[in-house]
Amino acid sequence: MGHGSSWMIDRERLHRDGYALLRGAIPSDWLDDLRAAFDAGTKPSDQWPIPRQVSWRHSLVDLDSKVQAVCRLPEMLAVVGELMGERFFLSQAEGREPLRGGGYQTLHRDLSAQRPGDSVNALAYLDDYGAENGATRIVPGSHRPAQGEPFDFNDESRSVLLTGSAGDILVFDADLVHAASLNATGTRRRSLLICYLTEALYASHLETTKLRSVRMDTADRFDPSDFAGMLRDYSSGFSVAGTGAASSGSFGVSEA
Fold first, then answer.
1. For the whole model, what pTM was predicted?
2. How many CB atoms sit inside 10 A of residue 117's CB?
3. CATH for 5-242?
4. Beta-bridge mates of residue 19
5. Residues 6+ apart with CB under 8 A from 255
6. Is the distance from CB of 192 to CB of 95 less than 8 angstroms?
């Protein structure tokens, strides 16, 4: 869909489940440029400040203008702001892709930094994704476990395998249990991992930018109230105006 379209995201469900999958959020005419930026920015594992997993392809993309535009899509920022509930900033953006025979992860959390909800991540998919090429698994509602209730990360009974198309964006609380799956076929599954943190974490963010290969300017601030005009309250939720179709509504981040 083009600009001016909207999809429904239930506010209660968003906070209950800890994620939203924004279908078709990236304009389709951006995808070729984004894929080209990903491929041009690819660096071998041993050329990063901290060597990366060899079963993944990693790409340095945070200075690319189209990547920056994706990071600032109003519909995505509206969801991030709703999850965080306070001013935040873009802390990291890089490309990641599971290689053939690689990508599988045990369920895990990326973890918030100082309080639940102070870190929100997004995966912007540049290729179609599914069971055959390393799609992301999530456990809805696992970001706010009951006090004293341990999570068995080897128990897949509640996990959901996400499938979809290039242009979708998964936005999720950093405490949501998730993992990448095995890319059994080698079919490409490029994505942008985008990380947002609350304003209070800015000083500690600056201390680790070189280790995380963050080159972009991270001074911009976003406030949930900036998107008040996009969010229309209903008895069952809210609407986000943007480019997508109907939706279901940290420092140490995973590959997923």
1. 0.88
2. 18
3. 2.60.120.620
4. 172
5. 53, 56, 96, 98, 103, 105, 180, 193
6. yes
**pLDDT tens digits for 188-243?**
999 999 999 999 999 999 999 999 999 999 999 999 999 876 655 544 333 343 33
Tokens of 211: 């280790």
- Say whether 145 sits in a helix, a strand or coil: coil
Sheet holding 160-161, edge to edge: 160-161, 136-138, 178-180
User: Residues 159-189, buried b or exposed e (16+ Cβ, 10 A)?
Assistant: beebebebbbbbbbbbbbbbbbbbbbeeebb
Distance of CA 250 to the CA centre of its chain: 11
CB atoms within 10 A of CB 85: 12
d(CA 93, CA 73): 14
